[in-house]
Amino acid sequence: MEKNSVLIVDDSSLARMMVRKIFATRFPDWKLIEAKDGDEALSLTSDEVRLALVDFNMPGMNGIELAERLMACNPRISVYLVTANIQERMHQRAESMGIGFIKKPIAENKIAEILRSFV
Known about the structure:
Elements: E1 5-9, H1 13-26, E2 31-35, H2 38-44, E3 49-55, H3 63-73, E4 78-83, H4 88-96, E5 100-103, H5 108-115
Parallel strand pairs: 1-2, 1-3, 3-4, 4-5
């Protein structure tokens, strides 16, 4: 059986490391793909990516812009914005697009809750 893949997009290497650690210890059956910005994420993603955890504030395109492009390329992908703070207007826009939210710092139980929908 092919592994599910998760795309982790954050300009902070520390934030990516924290998510990587959660997956390595709790969800080792998931393949991890990491990117530091939207352009790199778009170049690395494929149809195998089922989940994208995307930082909102990044250089270049923001998380909502990236989510929109990822969802256009891969309609079955689930996208979650990972952020400490987001304006209400952006929150409403993201919700209307079907994008979820995870507050920083990411908690292991929140990742587990999201992954339950993939089994």
